[in-house]
Amino acid sequence: MLVRRSHERGITTLTLDSPHNRNALSARLVSELHEGLAEAAGDKAARAVVLTHTGSTFCAGADLREAGTDASAPLGLVRLMRAVVELPKPVVAVADGHVRAGGTGLLGACDISVAGEGATFAFTEARLGLAPAVISMPLLPRLDARAAARYYLTGERFDAAEAARIGLVTLAGKPADVLPPLLDGLRRGSPQGLAESKRLTTADVRRAFDRDTDELAALSARLFASEEAHEGMTAFLERRDPAWLR
To answer: Does a structural domain hold residue 27?
Structure first.
């Protein structure tokens, strides 16, 4: 399995466990994550879901070895992010490793997120001939606009403290220290109270999905099929500079 599931005291934990490809969003991992979310949604004893990872990377984004051949991949990521946003239970992301590209969209779809000292972040799409298209739906309603422009355009890496400052994550700190009080608070919530409170806080994000999914998924598919993106992804996999670098 690429997504391990466990349950303890009202909390379902889904652990991305595909370190060989940096927990990239392969079709298999996405399918297993959907299954885990659906199971948690139907579990009356579960008050919340924790999404975490093994290895040094929370999620590297699209699996580039699949992306160029799967035109449905952008819509697949949309469905996954929307499943997180619309789950009637809070989802808490715990990232204590690298988060890149589509991985930031998965993180941004979560209701609460904790970034450990080992976490780093980057929107690397522009460097690959792509753009942070579909992940903008959960991210732009929550990010500082000037910071979003900077990091979308430059692809710079930034740390957990900066991620918290710009609104990408909720808290920066040691997960072992900051996670227990968060989970205790969620355990005290009633199923109805948590579900309806989440609907209030995700309203803008859900409206973005309703409004922009078709346009941004089409943009993402077009970019992935382009010659520039082919060069960018090939250069990345071959660990060399792309042809446009001067």
So the answer is: yes
The answer to whether 160 and 166 have CB atoms below 8 angstroms apart is no
What confidence tens digit (pLDDT) does each residue in 137-164 have?
A: 999 999 999 999 999 999 999 999 999 9
Number of domains in the chain: 1
The answer as to whether 181 is a domain residue is: no
Catalytic positions are 125
For residue 59, the cross-strand partners are 99
In a domain, 190, yes or no: no
The region, left, alpha or beta by phi > 0 then psi within -120 to 50, assigned to residue 167 is: left
Closest-CA residue to 140 (of 63, 209, 229, 217): 209
216 occurs within a structural domain:
no
pTM for this model (two decimals) = 0.95
- What whole-number distance in Å separates Cα of residue 30 and Cα of residue 80? 7
